[in-house]
Design brief:
Layout lengths: L6 E5 L2 E5 L3 E7 L10 E9 L9 E6 L2 E9 L2 E5 L4 E4 L4 E5 L4 E7 L6 E9 L10 E5 L6 E3 L3 E7 L1 E2 L2 E2 L8 E8 L4 E5 L5 E8 L1 E4 L2 E4 L3 E4 L4 E6 L3 E8 L7 E3 L2 E3 L2 H12 L8
Antiparallel strand pairs: 1-22, 2-3, 3-4, 4-11, 5-10, 6-9, 6-11, 7-8, 7-10, 9-12, 13-14, 14-17, 15-16, 17-24, 18-23, 19-24, 20-21, 20-23, 25-26
Pfam family, one: Pirin_C
Cofactor: Fe cation
Keywords: Iron, Metal-binding
Length: about 280
């Protein structure tokens, strides 16, 4: 029997800073919710004050997970130790598997204006934590669209209405940017075995029958669909992924299964092993 998901609770996020002092709002990875397996962290950055974002995220290492960065407004340049480079422009996304180890930077390529986007950390199962790093840029035109009478959806990853997103070779998650028309209702199918949440990007509307506003992040219960109803300029990001259900050892930029693996990550980083192909 099909069942619609309900809202378990709504996160409002906590203001913090990261990188070289970039101001952001952290939703997952806080005292309120340390993780939502397989999701380790979710940050939102939204500012038109250059002082809050220009310092960016200079070179820093990662191992054992993937990042998904989605830019609504602004420009951000990616460079990494495996030779990848990409300019993230408005409406674009980048998927990066840190895998066995990568050093990268994410630096604004604008001196004024709005910088608005989201970064999600997705855990990897132990069998993939030491896999080869992998990077993919998706420009706005690379992201397929689904259009119905009730909504328009950009499919970054996963499949909706038979349309599959542009991200290839990463841990399989659903990542849909959905604009629901005012007064219209939409039922978004999500596999019952996946963890799911919704980011309210703009406007007002209903998620699972409850009123939400921009900046809310509803964590959802189990079920096989998410019910949305459009209010004024209602835009959401729907994210879902299968839990990994493995032990998590986490310290700063490294996410492994054991404390010993974390120690090895530090040793490998200090030995320069993140700066070359495996």
């Amino acid at each position: 029997m099909k069942s619609a998901r309900k809202i378990h609770h709504i996160l409002k996020g906590q203001e913090t800073s990261d990188g070289a002092g970039v101001k952001l709002r952290r939703y997952i990875g806080t005292r309120d919710l340390m993780a939502h397996d397989p999701f380790l962290m979710l940050d939102a950055f939204y500012s038109d004050d250059p002082d809050s974002y220009l310092a960016g995220f200079p070179n820093h290492p990662h191992r054992g997970f993937e990042t998904v960065t989605y830019l609504i407004q602004g420009k951000m340049e990616h460079n990494d130790s495996r030779g990848n480079r990409g300019l993230l422009e408005p409406g674009g996304a980048q998927f990066m598997r840190a895998g066995s180890g990568i050093i990268h930077s994410e630096m604004p390529r604008q001196e004024n204006g709005m910088m608005w986007g989201y970064q999600l950390w997705v855990n990897l199962p132990g069998s993939l934590k030491m896999s080869e790093p992998h990077y993919q840029d998706l420009q706005k035109g690379d992201i397929p669209l689904v259009q119905t009478g009730a909504y328009e959806a950009k499919i970054l990853s996963g499949t909706l209405e038979g349309v599959t997103g542009g991200a290839k070779g990463f841990y399989e998650i659903d990542y849909f940017d959905i604009e629901v028309k005012d007064g219209q209702s939409a039922e978004i199918p999500v596999a019952a075995d996946k963890s799911a949440f919704v980011i309210v990007v703009a406007g007002t509307g209903d998620v699972a029958g409850e009123k939400v506003v921009r900046g809310d992040l509803p964590i959802l219960t189990s079920g096989d669909s998410i019910e949305l109803k459009g209010g004024e300029n209602f835009r959401v990001i729907v994210v879902a992924g299968a839990p990994i259900k493995e032990p998590v050892a986490r310290y700063g930029p490294f996410v492994m299964n054991t404390a010993e693996e974390i120690q090895q990550a530090f040793e490998d980083y200090q030995a320069g092993k993140f700066s070359k192909a495996s």
